[in-house]
């Protein structure tokens, strides 16, 4: 019998907010200005990773002669310039938050992005106070797919890992959730297809999918 879900941990980018498509566009424009190009393969290799790994992927796969941190900072500056106006919540986010609150299930955010970015995005959309806490890249020594961040989320929420539902959109994130012993739910999108998320316990098209709500007893 499946373990009862007692808490939920949410990834951020691509899962709660449609930031992946926005990042893809901005990265493409930024690299084009430097004489390079940004590809779907590069995006797939970067999704769910911390900045230190993402910058290395960006530089190595683009072949642009620049320091990885400098290149990523250039992309990030352009991305942040449009983030507040153009990043929209993903379909079903509000309904899922409502459902979890109806059940009295506490929630946290566990992201590979820095905490300040998460706080900015959550606060800007008026949902920060719906989460008990936010874990960012600076809160762990090892990023996803290592399970550290989801073990910390379970501990912070006061539940055993097997009673934690993790909501993710990346292969690295799903791998981290499974390695932590959590119940992994994956929501595919254009830059993270279902085929790469096959190890998840449940794959749904959106955050308020009936199959997901049913797993919560709703």
Textual characterization of the structure:
This protein starts with 6 loop residues before the first strand and ends with a helix. It has helices at 19-33, 40-46, 51-62, 68-86, 93-102, 115-124, 148-157, 171-180, 210-215, and strands spanning 7-10, 107-110, 134-135, 164-168, 183-186, 202-203. Strands 3-2-1-4-5-6 form a six-stranded parallel β-sheet, with helices on both faces. The chain is of the alpha/beta class and 218 residues long. The longest helix has 19 residues, at 68-86. α1 packs across α4 (68-86) and α3 packs across α4. Helix content is 45%, strand content 10%. The chain is built from nine helices and six strands; from the N terminus they run βαααααβαβαβαββα.
Oligomer: single chain
The largest pleated sheet is described as: 6 strands, parallel
Runs in which pLDDT lies below 50 for 5 or more consecutive residues are none
Q: What is the arithmetic mean of pLDDT?
A: 93
Identify the overall geometry.
Answer: globular
The ordered string of helix (H) and strand (E) elements is: EHHHHHEHEHEHEEH
Number-wise, the strands total 6
By DSSP (H or I, 4+ residues per run), the number of helices equals 9
End-to-end separation in angstroms reads 17 Å
Order of strands across the biggest sheet?
3-2-1-4-5-6
Q: Radius of gyration over alpha carbons?
A: 17 Å
Helix content: 40-55%
Structural class, from secondary structure content? Answer: alpha/beta
Beta-strand fraction estimate: 5-15%
């Amino acid at each position: 019998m499946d373990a009862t879900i007692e808490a939920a941990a949410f990834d951020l980018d691509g899962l709660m907010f449609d930031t992946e498509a926005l990042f893809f566009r901005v990265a493409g424009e930024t690299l084009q200005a430097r004489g390079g190009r940004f590809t779907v393969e590069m995006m797939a290799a970067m999704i769910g990773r911390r900045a230190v790994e993402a910058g290395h992927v960006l530089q190595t796969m683009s072949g642009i002669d620049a320091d990885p941190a400098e290149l990523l900072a250039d992309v990030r500056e352009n991305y942040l310039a449009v983030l507040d106006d153009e990043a929209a919540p993903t379909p079903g986010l509000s309904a899922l938050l409502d459902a979890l609150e109806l059940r009295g299930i506490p929630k946290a955010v566990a992201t590979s992005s820095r905490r300040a970015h998460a706080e900015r995005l959550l606060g800007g959309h008026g949902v920060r106070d719906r989460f008990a806490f936010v874990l960012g890249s600076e809160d762990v020594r090892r990023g996803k797919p290592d399970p550290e961040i989801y073990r910390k989320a379970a501990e912070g929420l006061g539940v055993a890992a097997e009673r934690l539902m993790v909501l993710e959109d990346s292969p690295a994130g799903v791998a981290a959730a499974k390695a932590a012993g959590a119940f992994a739910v994956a929501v595919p999108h254009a830059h993270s297809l279902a085929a790469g998320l096959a190890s998840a316990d449940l794959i749904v098209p959106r955050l308020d999918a009936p199959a997901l709500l049913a797993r919560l007893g709703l």
